[in-house]
Amino acid sequence: MAERWRQPVVPLAIDQLHQAIWLPDGRVQGEVQLTLAPEDVERMRLGYVCAKCLEPHETAWPERCNACGSPMRSEQAAYFAREFGGILPVVNRPSWEEELDSLEERRRKEEEAKR
Asked: Is the whole-model pTM more than 0.85?
């Protein structure tokens, strides 16, 4: 059995925002909003999970993240305070079947709009 602290942080939802980051080499990186389980948010707030890459750690507030090198001890609390959007109600999302069923209807509406 894996240690409890190794539980990965699995986002419940990932929403594309209409924002982007332009990198110096010309690439554009889209901004996303993650919906996390309350337990994972608490682990991040307490310094057991990197807020940048979601890597879990055995001890709270390591100097740097083992995976991405983010300065967790000195910067994560401020980053979390700045980026955490609070607890929001979870909107019921359509199932994959409902999404697939609606694709044909959306395609027809887009074709009609082009005419």
From this structure: no
